[in-house]
Amino acid sequence: MFLKLYFYEKAGARTNTVFKLWRKLSLMANSNSVRGQGSVEYLIIIGVVLVIALIVVGLSTFFASSSQDLNQTEVDTYWATQVRPLRVMAMQGYYYGPGNGGEIALLVQNIDSKPVTLRNLIMGPDVSTVVVYSNHSTTGAAAGTPLGYGGQGYRGSPNLSIVIAPSEKVAVYLRVNDTATGGFCSDAYNAKSFRKNLTLQYDTPYFSQSYFAGIKPIQGRCSQIN
Q: Could you tell me the pTM of the whole model?
């Protein structure tokens, strides 16, 4: 983030300098004191300055895009390598078109040597209820039987119980309700991408109602299903 801000400040300063120089040269080229060969030379210089300005703007766009990709890589790496005992090995959003809602898919792995029971997925702070499915809806219609419910409303009194064996990976599909309308990656939230804080509540053979609150959110792009 600091690198991104630093680059923007530098790029913005260079762009302003370039356009100030272009404006000054334009005034000189149009003044009564500039004639003939001198005007041609100044026009050439103005052209060069404009090319440089376009390059600076292009580099700004490129580095902004690269920064976003780097941010996604950091999020993916964090959830896949620095979280325990349950890790999120992959995350993907799905958008089904206007009025048809969407969902978030998470691939959860148990890296502990003992079974771990996933009891709740708390997303928010603006999501009170999460409906957890074992299957992906390919059409946007409400499909499948919920494995259970999670969210802020079930903190402390979990409704979900998914037992994950050591090294096992389980895919869960999250929607905000039982219907096809609304939901993650929908018009009600953001049809292009998702970004939510995530807290995992789980039980182990040794402790019950343990929590892990990620210091980075889950996020990603929403792929539209035609």
A: 0.68
